[in-house]
Amino acid sequence: MQKGRNYGQIGRGSFVPGSWSTVQALMRWRAWDPLGYSCAMTSPLTDIEIRLKRLPHGENLPLPHYATDHAAGMDVVSAESVVLEPGARLAIATGFAIAIPVGYEVQVRPRSGLALKHGITCLNTPGTIDADYRGEVKVILANLGSEPFPIARGERIAQLVPAPVQHARFAEVEELDETARGHGGFGSTGR
Q1: Buried b / exposed e along 154-184 (16+ C-beta atoms within 10 A)
Q2: Where are the domains of the chain?
Q3: What's the rounded Cα separation, in Å, for the pair 72 and 57?
Q4: In terms of Cα–Cα distance, which of 150, 182, 155, 5 is closest to 95?
Q5: Where are the beta strands (DSSP E) in 85-134?
Q6: In tens digits, what is the pLDDT along the chain, a chain of 191 residues?
Q7: CA–CA separation, 99 vs 129, rounded Å?
Q8: How far apart, in whole angstroms, are the C-alpha atoms of residue 81 and residue 84?
Q9: What is the C-alpha separation between 44 and 164, in angstroms, rounded?
C-alpha cells in the first residue's frame, strides 16, 4: 500500500491519493451515493468566520447566504429602495459591515440573471473588500440596459465570494526574460 498523508475517511477506507484503498473507498462511496447528493466531499478548504455587524437600516434583512449547497457566492441584498436609471451607477447600501480574517478578501460580483435580463452589473468587478475595512459594505451597481431598474429593499443585488490573498513584492530589474509571446497583448493571440 502506498504511504502518504491521510486526508480523512471515506466509507471505511483511508483517503491516500493514488492508493488502491482510495479507489476502493471511492467506489464504495459512489455505490452508497451514486448521484453525489451527499455534501461530505464538497471542498478541501475549511470555512472561515467573517464577523458581521448589522447596521440600523439593515434590520430584518437576511444575512448573506448561499442559495444552494454548491454555490460559490453568497447572495447579498439591498438595504434601500432606489431606481437605477439607464447609464447610471450607484453605491447601494447593504445594511452591514464585516471583519474579514487577515489573509483573505471578499470579492463582490454581479448576479448573472440581473446582468443578462436587465443589464445590471457591478462596476469594478470583482470588487474587493479588504480585511482591514470596517465600513458599511456597499455594492456599486450600473444600469447598462435601456430601461430604469427599480431595486426594492431586500432584493438580491450581488454575490460575495471570500478568497485567500497572495501578497507579492516587486523586484526592479534592467531586463525581463524573453517569452514566445513577448510584447503581444490586447487580442494578439486571436479574437
Answers
A1: eebbbbbebeeeeeeeeeeeeeeeeeeeeee
A2: 1-41, 51-164
A3: 27
A4: 155
A5: 89-99, 104-109, 120-122, 127-129
A6: 444 444 444 444 444 555 555 555 555 545 555 555 554 445 678 899 999 999 999 999 999 999 999 999 999 999 999 999 999 999 999 999 999 999 999 999 999 999 999 999 999 899 999 999 999 999 999 999 999 999 999 999 999 999 999 999 999 999 999 998 888 888 877 77
A7: 10
A8: 10
A9: 14
C-alpha cell at 46: 475549511
Q: Mark residue 49 as left, alpha or beta (left: phi above 0; alpha: psi -120 to 50; beta: remaining).
A: beta
Round to whole Å and give the CA distance between 71 and 140: 22
C-alpha cell of 49? Answer: 468566520
CATH number belonging to domain 51-164:
2.70.40.10
